[in-house]
Design brief:
By secondary structure, the protein is mostly beta strands. The chain has a single domain, classed as Methylamine Dehydrogenase, Chain H (7 Propeller). It has a 4-stranded mixed β-sheet with strand order 5-2-1-18. The two termini are 13 Å apart. It is a single-pass type I membrane protein. Its EC number is 2.7.11.1. It is found in: Membrane.
């Protein structure tokens, strides 16, 4: 999680000493965003001398040159377990920098042993390996993900990209076709074209896409969710396909969202440990939703995500 006062990171878990996701966190550093996965955590850091911590945004007095300097300073920063022996490639801990003047990195999302970053214009890069896993054995089509032209769709710019446990899904920008694309390990059905929702009527803002272990969900233009992949057919409770959500996020085998009608929380999926029963239902508008990354005009907000 991020502290509201200085955007420094606080990590908690079962074993704070041996879990590198906790022990190696740079707690004296500020972050615009966090994403936690099975092996590691990544955040977006920047030059926070340009930042107004009270407003959680760049200082309003910044000149155009200052804004450009701030955006140019944004970099992915990762920590956690290197898994070279088990999965062959730990480049996910040092993802390539793909930002450029006028097109800064605005989003980072991590999976099991890979990291994806996205720029404001929708360019993406994923580093790491869709590797073998102790629970499920070797994945089919295990590949390194090196750049947007290798595994993921050629020439597509993305409005949102989310890493699942063993795959990545994204929704193209209007210039990128507005369609859903997925790539990665193929044995759980989530990346097969026949299973991916067809059409272009999908939302592209943060919180419109969620990916777990062998499934993904996306919000349609009317904010109703659709889920696909092997585990989605076993969801109990099932996907609430007629409920409208302002935000969704996925755990390993379940999804939770904030409902439009009353801002309360609703969850669905494989819920053997009461994870689909939120501890409390909050009053309307007490769960705030806002723009969570740059919208193209330098309007920054911060966020943190995790798959627990």
């Amino acid at each position: 999680m991020l502290r509201s006062t200085d955007l420094s990171v606080v990590c908690r878990g079962q074993d704070a000493t041996s879990d590198a996701r906790i022990a190696e966190a740079l707690t004296n550093q500020s972050y615009l965003q966090l994403s936690a996965g099975v092996q590691h955590v990544c955040g977006l850091t920047a030059d926070f001398s340009y930042w107004d911590f009270g407003a959680s945004a760049p200082r309003s007095s910044l000149s155009a040159a200052d804004v450009a300097a701030f955006e140019g300073s944004i970099r992915p920063s990762c920590w956690g377990n290197g898994v070279t022996n088990a999965r062959g490639n730990d480049s996910f801990l040092t993802p390539a920098y793909i930002g450029s003047p006028g097109d800064p990195v605005v989003d980072v999302s991590v999976g099991d042993s890979f990291t994806c970053t996205r720029t404001r214009s929708g360019r993406i890069n994923c580093d790491g390996t869709f590797g073998s896993n102790g629970d499920y054995g070797a994945y089919i089509n295990t590949k390194d993900v090196t750049d947007p032209s290798f595994d993921n769709p050629n020439g597509v710019t993305f409005g949102v990209v989310v890493a699942g446990y063993d795959h990545v899904c994204g929704v193209g920008t209007p210039t990128g076709g507005n369609a859903v694309h997925c790539w990665g390990s193929a044995n759980l059905g989530v990346v097969q074209a026949a299973n991916i929702p067809a059409g272009t009527a999908f939302r592209t803002e943060a919180g419109a896409l969620a990916s777990g272990n062998g499934f993904s969900c996306v919000l349609r233009d009317d904010r109703t969710p659709v889920c696909w992949g092997a585990f989605s057919q076993f969801f109990t409770p099932p996907t609430p396909s007629t409920t409208r959500f302002s935000y969704i996020t996925a755990g390993r085998f379940h999804v939770c969202g904030i409902r439009v009608v009353d801002s309360s929380t609703e969850c669905w999926g494989v819920c053997e440990h009461a994870e689909c029963n939120p501890p409390e239902q909050l009053a309307p508008r007490s769960v705030g939703c806002s723009a969570l990354a740059s919208t193209g005009g330098g309007a920054w907000r911060t966020r943190a995500t995790t798959r627990a």
